[in-house]
Amino acid sequence: MSTEIEINLSKITLRPYKISDVDDFLLYGGNEKVTRFTRWNTFTTKQEAVSYIKDYCIPHPYCRSICIDDRSIGFVIIMPRSGDDRCRVDVGYALAAEYWGHGITTRAVKMAISEGLKEFPDVVRLQALVELENKASQRVLDKLGFLKEGVLRKYSFNKGDTRDMVIYSLLSTDFMP
User: Fold this and answer.
1) Which of 22, 108, 142, 169 is deepest in the core (most CB within 10 A)?
2) What one-character-per-residue DSSP string does 22-42 give?
């Protein structure tokens, strides 16, 4: 955690990605400390990052860049389900390592949930799957009032290993601090 960075949380904004975010995106998407728990591999080239932003982030129904002064420092994603599962969304997020420990992710995810519940009116359950070892991400969800429902043993394959996952949920009727 960097102590020299002072963050005004009111300056945190969310917006759709732009191709011009590529250099900022590479600062976190190209950092193995950040991508350790993500479902995607660490980006190694600018072209890989451009393709990901263009082909995945931009067309996604809710993939937002976490910004300070319109500079991308991370992302938050809400993945809606369809059909009989449209009552549920999955939530994910990551933040550039130099901004860890300042409450930015908690603030950004809270903003995204508020927006997401408006954009997806059928949603009654938000859920997040977090690797058991990812204690910082679990703290974010705890601070937001998500309920830890349990550990799913050997539930997901990521970066060459089968991982235990913790499942969290927040209902649209739950209080969010």
Assistant:
1) 108
2) HHHHHHHHT-HHHHTTSSSPP
